[in-house]
Amino acid sequence: MAFKACITVIAVAYAVQLFSGAESSSGSLGSSSSDEGTENSSGNSTEDYNYESSCFYNVLKTADNRTLSVNCTLDCGEHQNDSMPCVNVTYPPLNFSNPHLNYTCTVGECKNGTCPSNGTNVTCWAEYDTLNVISLPNTL
Protein backbone atom coordinates (compact mmCIF):
# COMPACT_ATOMS: atom_id res chain seq x y z
CA MET A 1 0.00 0.00 0.00
CA ALA A 2 2.89 2.34 0.71
CA PHE A 3 4.15 1.70 -2.82
CA LYS A 4 0.76 2.70 -4.29
CA ALA A 5 0.72 5.86 -2.17
CA CYS A 6 4.25 6.71 -3.34
CA ILE A 7 3.30 6.19 -6.99
CA THR A 8 0.18 8.34 -6.47
CA VAL A 9 2.23 11.16 -4.94
CA ILE A 10 4.71 10.99 -7.82
CA ALA A 11 1.86 11.04 -10.36
CA VAL A 12 0.26 14.06 -8.66
CA ALA A 13 3.60 15.89 -8.51
CA TYR A 14 4.17 15.15 -12.20
CA ALA A 15 0.66 16.37 -13.05
CA VAL A 16 1.19 19.63 -11.14
CA GLN A 17 4.49 20.18 -12.96
CA LEU A 18 2.83 19.35 -16.26
CA PHE A 19 -0.01 21.80 -15.70
CA SER A 20 2.31 24.54 -14.46
CA GLY A 21 3.86 24.53 -17.92
CA ALA A 22 0.47 24.20 -19.60
CA GLU A 23 -0.93 27.32 -17.88
CA SER A 24 1.69 29.49 -19.54
CA SER A 25 1.18 27.86 -22.92
CA SER A 26 0.01 30.25 -25.61
CA GLY A 27 -1.55 27.50 -27.75
CA SER A 28 -4.75 25.59 -27.25
CA LEU A 29 -4.85 22.30 -25.39
CA GLY A 30 -4.54 19.32 -27.63
CA SER A 31 -2.00 17.28 -29.47
CA SER A 32 1.15 18.96 -30.62
CA SER A 33 2.32 18.54 -34.18
CA SER A 34 5.92 18.74 -32.98
CA ASP A 35 7.72 17.43 -29.92
CA GLU A 36 9.88 20.54 -29.84
CA GLY A 37 8.71 23.49 -27.77
CA THR A 38 10.07 27.00 -27.58
CA GLU A 39 10.80 29.14 -24.57
CA ASN A 40 9.22 32.54 -24.17
CA SER A 41 10.88 35.56 -22.53
CA SER A 42 9.88 34.45 -19.01
CA GLY A 43 11.57 31.07 -19.51
CA ASN A 44 8.31 29.09 -19.71
CA SER A 45 7.76 26.49 -22.40
CA THR A 46 5.15 27.23 -25.05
CA GLU A 47 4.82 23.55 -25.98
CA ASP A 48 1.29 22.14 -26.41
CA TYR A 49 0.32 19.01 -24.48
CA ASN A 50 -1.90 16.10 -25.43
CA TYR A 51 -4.42 15.39 -22.64
CA GLU A 52 -6.50 12.79 -24.51
CA SER A 53 -5.41 9.88 -22.28
CA SER A 54 -5.71 11.80 -19.00
CA CYS A 55 -8.36 12.05 -16.30
CA PHE A 56 -9.03 15.14 -14.19
CA TYR A 57 -10.18 15.02 -10.58
CA ASN A 58 -11.21 17.50 -7.88
CA VAL A 59 -9.18 17.97 -4.71
CA LEU A 60 -9.29 19.94 -1.49
CA LYS A 61 -6.18 21.17 0.34
CA THR A 62 -5.47 21.02 4.09
CA ALA A 63 -3.38 23.13 6.48
CA ASP A 64 -0.84 20.31 6.88
CA ASN A 65 -0.18 20.46 3.10
CA ARG A 66 -2.18 17.36 2.19
CA THR A 67 -4.25 17.01 -0.97
CA LEU A 68 -7.56 15.19 -0.53
CA SER A 69 -9.33 13.63 -3.50
CA VAL A 70 -13.06 14.38 -3.71
CA ASN A 71 -15.27 11.27 -4.07
CA CYS A 72 -12.45 8.92 -5.26
CA THR A 73 -13.87 9.05 -8.78
CA LEU A 74 -12.08 10.69 -11.70
CA ASP A 75 -13.99 12.86 -14.19
CA CYS A 76 -13.65 10.12 -16.83
CA GLY A 77 -15.44 7.60 -14.59
CA GLU A 78 -12.33 5.69 -13.46
CA HIS A 79 -11.67 5.12 -9.75
CA GLN A 80 -8.93 6.93 -7.84
CA ASN A 81 -6.02 4.75 -6.63
CA ASP A 82 -6.76 2.84 -3.41
CA SER A 83 -5.31 4.39 -0.23
CA MET A 84 -5.37 7.91 -1.77
CA PRO A 85 -6.40 10.38 0.99
CA CYS A 86 -9.93 11.58 0.29
CA VAL A 87 -12.85 13.66 1.53
CA ASN A 88 -15.83 11.65 2.75
CA VAL A 89 -18.06 14.67 3.53
CA THR A 90 -17.72 18.45 4.02
CA TYR A 91 -19.49 20.93 6.24
CA PRO A 92 -20.88 23.17 4.94
CA PRO A 93 -21.70 21.23 1.76
CA LEU A 94 -19.00 21.57 -0.90
CA ASN A 95 -19.55 24.55 -3.21
CA PHE A 96 -16.83 25.06 -5.83
CA SER A 97 -18.40 28.38 -6.89
CA ASN A 98 -17.20 30.05 -3.66
CA PRO A 99 -13.38 30.14 -3.82
CA HIS A 100 -12.86 31.64 -0.34
CA LEU A 101 -14.83 29.18 1.79
CA ASN A 102 -13.20 26.88 4.35
CA TYR A 103 -14.79 23.52 5.11
CA THR A 104 -14.65 20.94 7.85
CA CYS A 105 -13.71 17.79 5.95
CA THR A 106 -14.19 14.24 7.17
CA VAL A 107 -11.14 12.36 5.87
CA GLY A 108 -10.79 8.80 4.62
CA GLU A 109 -8.82 6.71 2.13
CA CYS A 110 -10.09 5.68 -1.29
CA LYS A 111 -11.16 2.05 -1.57
CA ASN A 112 -12.75 0.69 -4.76
CA GLY A 113 -13.94 4.15 -5.83
CA THR A 114 -15.50 5.08 -2.48
CA CYS A 115 -14.19 7.10 0.46
CA PRO A 116 -14.90 5.36 3.77
CA SER A 117 -14.29 7.76 6.67
CA ASN A 118 -11.53 7.17 9.21
CA GLY A 119 -13.30 9.54 11.64
CA THR A 120 -10.75 12.38 11.28
CA ASN A 121 -11.96 15.95 10.71
CA VAL A 122 -9.67 18.66 9.29
CA THR A 123 -10.06 22.17 7.89
CA CYS A 124 -9.85 22.15 4.10
CA TRP A 125 -10.43 24.41 1.09
CA ALA A 126 -10.44 24.35 -2.70
CA GLU A 127 -7.62 25.89 -4.74
CA TYR A 128 -8.65 27.20 -8.12
CA ASP A 129 -5.25 27.99 -9.65
CA THR A 130 -4.13 24.38 -10.11
CA LEU A 131 -5.49 21.43 -12.07
CA ASN A 132 -5.13 17.81 -11.06
CA VAL A 133 -4.77 15.08 -13.63
CA ILE A 134 -3.84 11.42 -13.78
CA SER A 135 -2.64 9.78 -16.94
CA LEU A 136 -4.91 6.79 -17.62
CA PRO A 137 -2.10 4.29 -18.29
CA ASN A 138 -0.82 4.96 -14.73
CA THR A 139 -4.19 4.11 -13.17
CA LEU A 140 -4.76 0.77 -14.87
Could you explain how this protein is built, in words?
The chain has 140 residues and is an alpha+beta fold. The protein has one domain (2-32, 47-139): Archaeosine Trna-guanine Transglycosylase, Chain: A, domain 4, CATH 2.30.130.100. Helix content is 19%, strand content 27%. It has helices at 2-23, 136-139, and strands at 54-56, 59-62, 67-70, 85-91, 102-109, 117-125, 133-135. The strands form 2 sheets. A 5-stranded mixed beta barrel has the order 2-3-4-5-6. Strands 1-7 form a two-stranded antiparallel sheet. The longest helix has 22 residues, at 2-23. It starts with a helix and ends with a helix. Residues 23-47 are annotated as: Disordered.
Which tags fit this structure?
five-stranded mixed β-barrel, 2 helices, 140 residues, Archaeosine Trna-guanine Transglycosylase, Chain: A, domain 4, alpha+beta, two-stranded antiparallel sheet
Q: How do the helices and strands line up, and which of them pair or pack?
A:
Elements: H1 2-23, E1 54-56, E2 59-62, E3 67-70, E4 85-91, E5 102-109, E6 117-125, E7 133-135, H2 136-139
